[in-house]
Design goal:
The chain is an alpha/beta fold. The chain has 23 helices and 20 strands.
């Protein structure tokens, strides 16, 4: 069989025993067997044998390769694809700078527990360690930010390594893995034996345990006797698709629910039991509820500093139940009175099954009434309709005009305003939470749109953040994605400026973006993307509605009040009760 056409009939040839193939073709067949139909990447010298196999796979019709404009964009696009679908995202990069450009995207996925398989080209095996052209030790560089990694030195290992990679990336607490493939491994002909998904168990691999009956019973005991319970929900609920069980638990016992930035969408924020996001820029009523609750039920959350504020004052009167799939998280930052270790969807189902056998006594309305009073007294501010456009009112318009959109964000003030004001369903909120990666929003949005071509996808960006990966407008244009990008443009690095104003006596060092900022509308049009400028409140709704409704990629540059701050805010080192920016509190 001609090697150049092997990939077109690879499965037939393997089934017929004609399995002398190239390492690169073996890689593509292994990916196909794991359900991969989309790859985000950028070619280069060391990965060319693999890209030749990509060419054949695309000709065969089973693969779509998305050419990004920068490897970081590829990693973020695969990340957005994974978050929106629950599948493993896949991205490619070549050796040296191609591989190192992936690092920020890998770290972003690791911090937010997103399943990625990252495949890099490497210099040929004999050149490894010689400081060859475009050689870097990407295996060593990424060790702290992946769940596992491999350097494939024998093409016969490819199928097994890919099977292990997908299993590790998607099991337990998801995360990124890296597979580094030297160029000559992809070029070598060898005897290929296909490996099916989940048929190889990595050494030392432990599947998620199942929560034991005693911990489930102890957790339910505490819920039943609590007077002021609060569900504290993180991204683990979304990763494990446990949102239905969460809703059933909350409604059965009338438990109020607060979510982290990663947990947005796990619980319907239009439900009266929702108290929104908690933490540094959370709602006042969520933070007050945390301070006053007598039972905190943490589900798939990790007690990170942006949630807890001063840790020793977080939920000071509460006993803690911690549902978690990662044993390293239980008792890491906050000791749990009851730790429930296991897959969250299974654990919550077991809890509900046990509650079916008991008499359900919902909590008294007094606690919910108190929360309602906080909601009335400390609502999220609705800005006046005077002067320049407020950033908050842009988000309110987006909420009304696109209530079911998939939302990606960049990082900064606009991200926090979006988290405060938008309402999202499961997997419809996609934002860099743990690493706080500027430039995440646009490539993540294109990844979501590729995954879900018929869904409305909107990126909420900042004028500083978008410049980090604005080249991905080229990708969005090339594939004519229907993605909408809204820039909340205050001509600052807004969140950094807010901190400089409050904590550094208004010494605005290196944060003013006005000089040198591009004409975003003209720039978008140069990429073949429609552009709108909105700087007049009277036209905000009309022009935003028009821009969101037209077909094709569109950028909307909205100029807002320059010095508006994002409140409430818990200053660093303070407790969640010590918020600033509340009515009568500066």
């Amino acid at each position: 069989m001609n090697l150049s056409s092997l990939s077109l009939s690879l499965s037939d040839s393997v089934n017929q025993g004609q399995n002398q193939i190239l390492g690169a073709d073996a890689l593509m067949d292994s990916l196909r067997r794991h359900g991969v139909d989309t790859i985000f990447g950028y070619p280069g010298g060391a990965i060319l044998p693999i890209y030749d196999a990509v060419y054949k796979a695309e000709k065969a019709g089973w693969l779509k390769h998305i050419l990004v404009r920068h490897e970081q964009g590829g990693a973020h696009a695969a990340d957005g694809y994974a978050r929106a679908t629950g599948k493993v995202g896949v991205c490619f990069g070549t050796s040296g700078p191609g591989a190192t450009n992936l690092v920020t995207g890998i770290a972003t996925a690791q911090m937010d527990s997103v399943p990625l398989v990252v495949i890099t080209g490497q210099v040929p095996r004999p050149a490894i360690g010689t400081d060859a052209f475009q050689e870097t030790d990407i295996f060593g560089i990424t060790l702290p930010i992946v769940k596992h990694s491999w350097v494939v030195r024998d093409p016969a290992e490819i199928a097994s390594v890919i099977a292990q990679a997908f299993l590790i990336a998607s099991s337990g607490r998801p995360g990124p893995v890296l597979v580094d493939i030297p160029k000559d491994v992809g070029q070598e002909v060898f005897e290929y034996k296909a490996v099916e998904p989940r048929s190889v168990i990595p050494a030392g691999f432990k599947p998620p345990c199942s929560a034991d009956a005693i911990s489930i019973s102890n957790a339910l005991d505490l819920i039943e006797i609590a007077q002021r319970p609060l569900l504290y929900v993180g991204g683990g609920v979304i990763s494990s698709s446990a949102h239905d069980s969460l809703a059933a638990l909350a409604n059965r016992y009338r438990l109020p629910v607060t979510t982290t930035l990663m947990g947005k969408g796990a619980f319907d924020e239009r439900d009266p039991l929702s108290v929104g996001m908690l933490g540094m820029h959370g709602t006042a009523y969520a933070n007050f509820a945390v301070m006053e609750c007598d039972l905190l039920v943490a589900i798939g959350a990790r007690f990170d500093d942006r949630v807890t504020g001063r840790l020793d004052s977080f939920a000071p009167m509460a006993k803690v139940i911690h549902f978690e799939v990662d044993p390293a998280e239980i008792n890491k930052n906050r000791n749990a009175d009851v730790g429930v270790l296991g897959d969250l969807s299974v654990s919550l189902e077991k809890l509900l099954e046990l509650s079916d056998k008991r008499e359900v006594k919902p909590i008294t309305e007094e606690w919910l009434d108190q929360i309602e009073q906080w909601k009335i007294k400390y609502p999220l501010s609705i800005p006046s309709k005077e002067g320049e456009i407020y950033p908050q009112e842009v988000l309110l318009e987006v909420r009304d005009l696109a209530p079911n959109a998939y939302i990606t964000t960049d990082v900064g003030q606009h991200q926090m305003w979006a988290a405060q004001y938008l309402r999202n369903g499961p997997r419809q909120w996609i934002s860099s939470a743990g690493l706080g990666t500027m430039g995440f929003g646009v490539p993540a949005a294109l990844g979501v749109q590729i995954a879900l071509p018929d869904q409305q996808v909107i990126c909420i960006a900042g004028d500083a953040s978008i410049l980090m990966n604005i080249q991905e407008l080229g990708t969005i244009s090339q594939y004519q994605l229907n993605t909408k990008i809204i820039i909340i443009n205050n001509h600052w690095q807004g969140m950094v400026r807010q901190w400089q104003q409050r904590f550094y006596d208004e010494r605005y060092s290196a944060t003013n973006m006005l000089k040198g900022e591009p004409d975003f509308v003209s720039l978008a049009k140069s990429f073949g993307v429609s552009g709108y400028l909105i700087d007049d409140r009277s036209l905000l709704q009309i022009k935003l509605k028009e821009a969101l409704s037209i077909k094709g990629p569109t950028l909307i540059d909205i100029h807002v009040r320059r010095d508006e701050n994002c409140y409430p805010m818990v200053p660093p080192g303070k407790s969640n009760a010590e918020m600033v920016g509340l009515p009568g509190n500066s």
